[in-house]
Amino acid sequence: MTTDASQRGSGPLPTDRGTGRLRPSTQIDPSSVDQHSAAGQMKRLSPSEFNTAMIHFYRGEVQRSNTWRNRLDTTTNWAVITAGATLSFVFSSPSNPHFVIPINSILVAIFLLMEARRYRYYEIWSSRVRVLETGYFAHLLAPNVTPPDEAWAEHLAADLITPHFTITEWEAVGRRLRRNYLWIFALLALSWNLKVYLHPLPARDFDAFIDRATVGIVPGWIVFVFGVVFNATIAIFAIGTLRLREATGEVLPKHEFLCNR
């Protein structure tokens, strides 16, 4: 026994292991699968077992989508709270500086990018839920009206094997911008102009307005141009991403959903 063990331990390693490469995958004959193994049990699922598996899978995907949906609300709340606190501070006294508003605008832009990233993850689980609703549950509820469709199972299986984002970063930013953040940016821009114009006294003309916009050594016209360019870029981006329709969304009908796939 000792001699055999030493021969096994000192013998040459297999070629596949020695080279550090993965062994080529072998094709499994379906007829050779043991009926008592896990694979064999899955091939013999009854309709009731399949329905139970789909129900639990659907509940899990709904829970995932709800979790990421709540995270979207969190970043939006951050943006609203910081904007409200900034405006309350700026307008509470004529001596409070106006440059706090542009700083808050940059902070809100960071929140927008964070929310767009979370929205991409949310769309992964939301799209799977939509696949089950349109391809599986709709046929169960109305078998005579909704024809059976086998594409939903193939699509869902492929997405489980190789998950991928269903929405681009540009579309995610554009959607969240148009839904919530565009109005926050507009409010901050109007508030900054109102603050510079009113405090400490209403400006007599545009030159006085530009002088009040000065921040330290930065001339007022540079601050004003920066604000115009920043808000114009926000507006152009919101309009430019309007035609991006890669994501399924939550309320699209079946034919639009499948076309997006």
Helix/strand class: mainly alpha
Give helix and strand order, one letter per element, not per position.
Answer: HHHHHHHHHH
Morphology = elongated
How many separate domains?
1
Q: Helical proportion?
A: over 70%
Main pleated sheet: none
Count of helical segments? 10
Low-confidence stretches: 1-28, 32-42
Arithmetic mean of pLDDT = 79
Report the count of strand segments. Answer: 0
- The radius of gyration computed from the alpha-carbon positions, rounded to a whole number of angstroms, is 29 Å
Beta-strand percentage?
A: under 5%
Task: Report, as a whole number of angstroms, the end-to-end distance.
Answer: 61 Å
In short:
This protein is mostly helical and 261 residues long. The chain is built from ten helices and no strands. The radius of gyration is 29 Å and the shape is elongated.
